[in-house]
Model the fold of this input.
Amino acid sequence: MTIASTFRLSLFGAAISASLGLIGCSNSTDTATTNENAAADTDKPAKTLAITQIVEHPSLDEMRRGIIDELADNGYVEGQNLTVNFQSAQGNTATAGQIAKQFAGDNPDAIVAISTPSAQSIVASTKTVPVIYTAISDPVAAKLINENDVPIQSNVTGLSSELPIEPQLDNIQKIVPNAKTIGYVYSPGEVNSVVVLNQLKQAAPARGLKILDVTANRPTDVAMATRSLSGRADVIYTSLDNNVVSAFEAMAGAANELDIPVIASDEFSVRRGATAALGVNDYDFGRTTGKMVYRVLNGEAVNTIKPEVMNTLTLYASPKHAAEQGVSLSADLLKNAINIDEKAQNANK
Done:
């Protein structure tokens, strides 16, 4: 990692540790652009955009919606002057490879790859079509960029969310102060999940914590892997492992049975059963990615667009889910969080 990268992450970590109260506003339910009401800029030529993601789940879907909305706001409206070909690999890496080859052959104006496995497949399949990756935890480990933040291919750029592990551990220890063992359910085939595991194992001992990792190679394995932590873990942490997120209700249900709180790193996991999460806003992440895609569709060379990191973290919490998992959330923590329960109540009014 470069000195610049280290400095960037250090500043980020310090800012998050100093104040979890910097809450980002979610646009996911009330301020999103309605594409049907958007008017295309008739001066803009028609473009084709291919989008792929490893699996369909709320977090990745919300990012995709943000991308489409951002493009519509800038004059590229799906169904008018923008043709979008979206394909999901349904959690299968072999299918991700087939989609990548098809997209490369179709030669669209740009390809958006949402998630690490999809991005790796796309980048391996084309050196000419502009590729914008997103929803990547560690683009260096995924071999999308090098340690100097330079893409490994001239047709690649994108947006990542490098979440420093220390604020995550701070959050876990605030919610479960007496925790000694953190259970981590993950897929060993996902580079992003392995990176997080290694970060946890490196940082945990200094805090008197132990990491107990269990594998879930398929979404159907998630519930069993979670139950295997019974009597062995005080809290469960998960960080956008696509297998886990695809079956998150199964994880939350098992955790409820065991009275083990689940801490995540995205808003939708809290909506679906987690006690709390510290992470980026998925819709905003998509909007930021969409700005990069717009630049490419608008004629800017992809090799002039530098990869970016989205650093704004938001704390989400659910007192209801916390109670179901055997913990209570302090007034101080809730003061600095978006309360998902209140948000849901307000949405239903």
